[in-house]
Each structure stands twice: as structure tokens, then as C-alpha cells.
Amino acid sequence: MTEQSSPSAADGVSAADPRRVVIFDTTLRDGEQSPGASMNLDEKLRIALALEELGVDVIEAGFPIASIGDFESVHEIAKVVKNSTVCGLARAAKGDIERCAEALAPTARKRIHTFISTSPLHMKYKLQMAPERVLEKVVESVSQARNLCDDVEWSAEDGSRTEHDFLCRCVEAAIRAGAGTVNIPDTVGYAMPDEFAALIAMLINRVPNIDKAIISVHCHNDLGVAVANSLAAVNAGARQVECTINGLGERAGNAALEETVMALKTRHDRLPFTTEIKTEQITKVSRLVSAVTGFVVQPNKAIVGANAFAHESGIHQDGMLKHAGTYEIMSPESVGLNQSKLVLGKHSGRHAFKEKLKDLGYEFGDNAVEDAFRRFKDLADKKKDVFDDDIVALVDDEVMRANDYLKLVSLEILCGTKHNPPEATLELSIDEVKKSHTATGDGPVDAAFNAVKALFPHRARLQLYQVHAVTQGTDAQAEVTVRLEEDGRTVIGQAADTDTMVSSVKAYINALNKLLVKREKTAPSALSA
Ligand code: KIV
Ligand code: ZN
Q1: Rounded (5°) CA angle 501-505-507
Q2: Which residue's CA is minimally distant from atom 8 of ligand 1?
Q3: What value does the mean pLDDT take over residues 106-115?
Q4: Tell me, what's the pLDDT at 6?
Q5: Is the pLDDT at 529 greater than 50, yes or no?
Q6: Tell me: the pLDDT tens digits for 286-331?
Q7: CDD domains, alphabetically (predicted)?
Q8: Do 485 and 470 touch, CB atoms closer than 8 A?
Q9: Which strand (E) or helix (H) includes residue 139?
Q10: How does pLDDT run across 353-384, given as a tens digit for each residue?
Q11: How far is the CA of 221 from the centre of ligand 2 (A)?
Q12: Is the N or the C terminus of the chain less surrounded, counting Cβ atoms within 10 Å?
């Protein structure tokens, strides 16, 4: 067969600069496959625009064949994103590839990413296909994609557990058929850094046409080494890293974008590679993804955890006061974290509030600032000091509720020693129609949740109900997390309010709103990664 000339990843940037690493973000695709994470169209658009502003080269916007919702989000993202390549995922099937091309039609900067499993285990049990048939499918799928799109990426699913000879043959065939990027996933997060680097070096040494494509890696974090594996692969010659914000993704997640990028930046002496990521945007995007998905970032998470730049012990604080370099290897400002400790209160004005939002990494239009300011004033009436964490909780709450089908209108609870059983009177807006109901329960939360269920009957099971105080003091906002499960689908809802009962109901209906989004999705077969 004739060899197709292939454009290199993200408009040839790597060809121009051999040290440039292409950042391929898959928060909206692999990230959305995290159990419990789901995003509606509006949320996905907001994240895509934030990723573009962050400087991501390629945004994997979804898997168009998976559902109408997925198709629409790829299509709409392709309309608005201008500076990043927009990518869609497709199995090695004509229908998938055509649907993907259709979704990407609005943009000139597009990529079709097609994949098939290549490991003995996956070929035998998942695909039930002989290796030679898989090889044919590689050529067929890449050729089909290249007929519809100049920029094609091919992935060897379960690549790290694939026999080397077969992997070399598949990679060579994919490049010959026109793939400009060949991706080697560690689908099950099994590889170790030295082993994974050796795999990339092996491909560079053995695949004759490897110089015609960019090698990409896609590492899962099952053993906690996804970022280490990605960095080892870059050292060995890979020039695209697939990653997600906050390390979101299937099971234990994918390599975290913020960790990969900051390691490349901070340890440039050991890893002399560059990216186009504007690292000062990292905190803002991390917060947005956390607010939209309801996945709270663990406090000790590298780069974006609440404690990542906090110094608690006296010895550390003393050292920091003398010289920040004593205990800080990168500055908080370099990831967009402003350390200002300005506390707001009920006398703070619009200007101070706006400045605070900017410091915290939020940039809103005037209307959204006005809404947030109104909510801030309400909060400041209930709470003397409004800390940064209060504002983050308040704004995130707003972000999460923008287009909800179910909304809380009012809640009244009777409980305590004189009211047995506790009673909740709830008014909800359901698709803009107001309805109310009074229910009792074993406790005030149970009564309120029973009222929700009476107004909006559903089969979802409550798996987790958790409350945590956003700041110290009895006037602190209560941040409630609720996890629901329905037919194997899980969703996480979150909300914050100074009234624990109000945040409980808001978190519950936030989870139900997400479940409605999830119900639209049907998982296509053979999508396990
Ligand atoms: O983990 C994986 O193998 C994937 C592929 C679809 C790239 O997500
Ligand atoms: Zn994956």
C-alpha cells in the first residue's frame, strides 16, 4: 500500500522544536469516564474554553458515537474552540469514524483518534479477533479516518501489555496508513517507569518509519505512577502526553496534567522539554473541573491540593520567612495561586469582591459577578468573616447549578425534641414548574430527602452522605457530598451553605441533576479505557 504523508501532532509543533511536548487533554473524554463524573453540554463548553486558555494543544472533547449528548458536545466544542485542536474518539469501526468526523466538522483544527486493543488478553477475550485481523483493522480504520481528516491519531489499547513484535508491526502499519500520532497507552496502569521508557525506546529503535509520527503516551494511575511513566516516556522520546486535569479518569485516573507540566517546568534541568501551558491558569482550571464534576481535590494532592503550598510546622514557617526556597520548589503564583489573606466581610464592597475573585482565579462577566456578589452579601450577613474557601465554595456552587432541571425553591424543617418524627416541607422547581410536599423521616435529613423523592420519584440508591465544614467556627458553611447509584451508574452531588439542611438538599438534587445527564448515555461496547 502507498504511504500517506502525515501531519505531525498539533500542527507540526514538535517537528519544529524537537524538545516541545504536545499536551493532549482528555478530561472531557477519559476524565468523564470516571465513575461518578458527568458533565452537561454547558459545563463541557466551559471546561473546553478554559483548557484552550490554559494552552492545551489538543482537547479530546468526547466520544461522538457514545451518545447524542457526546456527539453534541464534541460538535459544539468544535464550533467555539479556535486555538487548540479538537479531537474525537472512535473505535476501529466505520460508523464510529464517520460519526466522529461529522461531530468535528465545524472546525479546521480537528483530529480523529481511533483505537483498537493489541494485547493478547484483549484480542482474545475482549475483541475475540486474531492478531492478523486486528492488524487489518488498524490499517482500515486509520485509512478511513485519513480520508476524512488530515490529523489522525492511532492508539494501541493495552499497549504496555502488547507483545513487542506485534506492537511494532501495528505502529508501523498505522503510520504507513497515515497516522501522524501513535499513542501507546498503559491502559491498566501496570507499567513501571523504567519498563515504560524502555518500551518507547524499543519502538524508536525498531519501527522503521517512526520518525514520521509523534509518539504519544496515555498512562493510567492504578499503581500511582502515571505521571512518572509519562515523564520517563518523554525522556525516552515520546513527544505527546495524554493527561487530565486533577488526574481524573477511569478507575484511579490518568496522569494529571498539572503534575506533568509542573514537573517539566520545575525540573527542566533533568527534563529539558517545553510545553505551551500557561501554568498560572492551572489553579483556576482545576477548581472549575472539581466544581463541575463534584470530585473534591484531596488536600495533599500535588500542585492543586489545598495544602500543596501550606506550611504548618513552626520549623517550616520559620524557614519560609527567611527564604521561600527553603521549603518551596515552585512558587504558588506560578500555578495561579495568590496567597493574599484578605478576609472579606459584610462591609466589603463590589470592588474588593471582584479583586478577590480575580485573585482566586475566577474571571466572570459583569452579570455573573453581580450574581456572585449578591450571594456573597447574603453569606456575609450570616457569617462574620468570609474566607477564600467560603468564596470558592460559593462560586463553585453557582457554577454547578447554572442550568439545573431540578432546583431548590424553599425548605422548612421541624425537628428537635418536640418534633418527632422530624418533618420537612420542600418546594422544588422541576423543569421550571414549582411543586411542594411535606414528608417525615428518621431524622431531618431523611425527612428532607423523602420530600425530594416524593416530588421527583427515582430509583437511585444513596451510597454516601458526607458533611464537612468549609472553614472553622460554628458559622462555617457546611459542604455536603452525596453519592447516588442507579443501574450501575454513580453520580456525585455537592453543595455548600451555612445551613446544613439546605446544603444537604442542594447536594441531593445536584446529584439527581447529574443522573439525568448520565441517563442519556449508553456505554458502547468495547470501550473499557
Ligand atoms: O486507556 C486507554 O487505553 C484509552 C484509549 C482509548 C486511548 O483511553
Ligand atoms: Zn484511558
Answers
A1: 115
A2: 529
A3: 98
A4: 52
A5: no
A6: 989 988 887 889 889 999 998 888 766 666 667 777 777 887 899 9
A7: DRE_TIM_IPMS (cd07940)
A8: no
A9: helix 131-148
A10: 888 887 776 777 777 788 889 889 988 888 77
A11: 10
A12: N
Burial class of 349 by CB neighbour count within 10 A (0 to 12, 13 to 18, 19+): exposed
25: nearest Cα among 12, 44, 38: 44
The residue whose CA has the least distance to atom 6 of ligand 1 is: 529
Mean of pLDDT values over 200-210: 98
The 3-class secondary structure across 156-192, one letter per residue, is EECHHHCCHHHHHHHHHHHHHHCCCEEEEEECCCCCC
Amino acid identity at 311: H
Task: Report how far ligand 1's centroid is from the alpha carbon of 350 (Å).
Answer: 46
Question: Do 34 and 248 meet the contact criterion of CB atoms below 8 Å apart?
Answer: yes
Amino acid occupying residue 391 = I
Ligand 1: which residue has its CA nearest to atom 4?
A: 529
- Please provide the CATH number assigned to the domain covering 20-272: 3.20.20.70
pLDDT tens digits, residue range 255-267?
Answer: 999 999 999 999 9
The fold of 403-519 is Double Stranded RNA Binding Domain (3.30.160)
Cα separation of 60 and 218, whole Å? Answer: 12
* Model confidence pLDDT, tens digit, residues 449-499: 999 999 999 999 999 898 988 777 888 888 898 989 888 778 888 888 899
- Which residues have their alpha-adjacent CB atom under 5 A from ion ligand 2? 30, 529
